[in-house]
Each structure stands twice: as C-alpha cells, then as structure tokens.
Sequence to fold (457 residues):
Amino acid sequence: DGVNLFAPSPNYGRPDDLRHFVDAAHAQGLGVLLDVVYNHLGPDGNYLRAFASDYFTDRHTTPWGDALNYDGPHNHWVRQFAIQNAVSWITEFHIDGLRLDATDTIIDDSPTHIVAELTERVRRATKRGVVVIAEDARNDVRRIQPVRQGGEGLDAVWADDFHHETRVYLTGARENYYADFQGTTSEMARTIEQGFGYQGARSPSTGKERGTKVTSEPAHAFVFCIQNHDQIGNRPFGERLHHEIDAARYATASAVLLFVPETPLLFMGQEFAATTPFLYFTDHEPELGQMVTQGRRTEFAGFRVFSDVKLRDSIPDPQLESSFTGSKLKYRDRSINAGIYRLYRTLIALRRTDAVLIHNDRTHARAEALSAQVIAIHRWWGPEQRLMLANFGAATQIQVSDAPFLARLPAQGWRIVLNTASRSHDGSGERARATGRGASRTISLPARSATIFRFTG
Fold:
C-alpha cells in the first residue's frame, strides 16, 4: 500500500540503487516491470487530504473506502498525479513496463478512462517499447483491445480463470470464489483455448454475469499462472500450491503452464518448489497493526476450519517479524529440488527456441480433455507440430482411434521432446511411449506426468 508514490522504499535502498538494479537486469537481457497501485493508498502515512480535499471522492467507494477522484470536480491534477507517477518510473528509472493493480476497482466514468490515458501517456514518454498489464477480475476484453476498436490498448490482462480451475481441480478447494469453478480437465482445456473461462456466464456466488466474449485477442494478452502473491499470501498460512499436492502433479501442472500459448507468470520460488511459505506481513505502527491482525483473523471466520476462535488465533500475526523472515526464499532449495528447477529451465528455454512454442498464437493451438485426468494441447506453426499430453492421474493408455482430437495428427514421425516423469526431473523414471501407426497407435503415459511430442506434417 503506497503513500509516497514517487519515492522508492528505503527498505530496499536509495533511488540510484533501483536505477543500478534496472541497468544490471538490462545487461543480462532482462526487462523489469513494476507493480504500481492507483486504486487506493495505504492507511498509514497517506497525507494527501492535508494538501487538498479533491484527491478523494465519496461519489464512488472501493474496498479501501473513498475512491480516488478520477472523474469528479477538480479531477485534472488527481489524474496527473497518477499519470506523471507512471511516466516517472519509465523515464527516470528506465522501467520496461507496469503492472496496474486491481484496475477493476479504479472507478472512472470519464469519456477516457484513466487506465487508457495512463497507458497512452507512458508509451508516448519514451521511444522504448513499454509493456502495460492490468490485474482485472472482470474478464473484460476491452482492457486489451486496441484503442481504434474502442478498447484501452493495454498489452495484457490477468486471466485468473485458468488458475482457479487448476487449483480447484488439483486441491478440491471450494471456499469463497473457488465455488464458481468446476475444476475439471474440460474447463481447464476450454480456458486454454479461449483465454477466459467466464465470458458472460452467471457467477453462482454473486448471481451476476461475469466476463466478455473473447474473439481475436492474441494469446500473449492473457496472463496465466498456477500461483501468485495474492493466491498464496491471502491464504491463512501462506501455503504454495506445491505444499498441497504431490510433486509429480505439480510438475505436470507446471509443464502445462509453460506449454500453453498464453503468457505464463511465475511467482518467485515456484521454479524450484520453494519450501518456505509466503505469508501476509505488515509493518504498521502498533495501534493500526493490531487492527490489521484482528481483521486478518476475522477475514477467515467464514471458513469451516476456522470456525473455532482458538484455531483462528493460530493464523500467523502479520505484524510479527517472523512472518516476514519466514517468507524469505532459501536458495538451497534449488539444489534440494534440482529436478523441478531443471524442468522449469528446460521449458522456459523451449518457449524461447522451439520453432512452434516461440509463437504465442491462439489460432495455432487447441486443447481438449481426453478424460477426467488427461488434457491434450496441440500447437503448430507451419509444418511443425507439438503435442502435450498431461496426465494428472494413474498410468494410462490412449488409443488414437478412440480420441478424435488425436486422429488428425500425423500418422508417423512422433518423437518425445520432454517427459516430466524423467529421472532428470526427479520423476518416477517411467517412460511415455507411442507405438503403432495412424488410428491403431497406442500412447502409454506414466502416472502424473506430462509428455511433449514433436512431429512434422
């Protein structure tokens, strides 16, 4: 929760230290995106009202109280406050892009939404390419549609439906918004094909329609993940996905994430299955801190497991230093979990070098659930074709003649590119096999594994 938006936090160093960090990343061929928050300011240290009452408005409300005044009387300099802040990160620190926090809570009834104006202004501020990504829960394609089509022109938007379907499928989670998701291989496959799951359907939990129709929006405009800071940090004990499921299914889900055409988002440490949690932690003055601690525990009162007050009190106190230090990564995990770390490195390299996977194109990809446990994802570019078969269940055999999705693939020339069951990825060592030809082909898949096949035709 920012309060002095133009100042990098001194907890991480001086402004020049941030500049040196960006320069060092650029020297390694890495871009740097900054998470910026323009939907609210923090509860401690926010003195904008002391300068002018026009910064906020009671015409709109947000989860944090009065909204920032982007569309009411005297809104010009409030808009400029956000826009010039965004521009400063691009021009003064050479940041390569911005991730806009919870844009669905930025309320603006102006003819040009503040998100669209901000995006246009940061791009105009530099000759370098700038990436702008929105975190937005509404599944609104207008965020990523070109301005000439009436959209807001952002590069990408978070597409959380893939995460939710995957998590429900793998863990059986049903609390809160997870109740809106079936958690089936069919829904996972549909979301892979289309980017959004909800495209105007009614949400069971809210009773309201959610989402808009996906048409020609490119795959790279949809950001997929299997875990992120919110989905972990908002859990009572900060459990990561791989803390809740077995290593083989985690490797399979990871392989799916890095094979689909959408843009994958990785949360720090997931690439080596970090043993540490990521807890919610704060550093407020005592009175506010006590309110945050109590609010945090009250937040989980509706969960069955925390119906007992004593159990709720076991949720880590975000104000304790141990909540912060206990969330730090242990880099020795890269050696302890070398197999999953190697798998991530291999799959990321394939996305950068493979003749098919280098193209993030939904029109050259299709996905289908072959069973309640197996998803098939087919991608192609020119004559080159790739197929992933992700099996989340027991070892199985698939007859091509029984799977129309596979029947249109080349009859011969199948070669295995990667199998997560490989010993090199700390798998079982069981091998995937494709025997026979054409419709008589039989594909054998090890339990809880993903296999990538390569063929031309």
The longest strand covers residues 374-381.
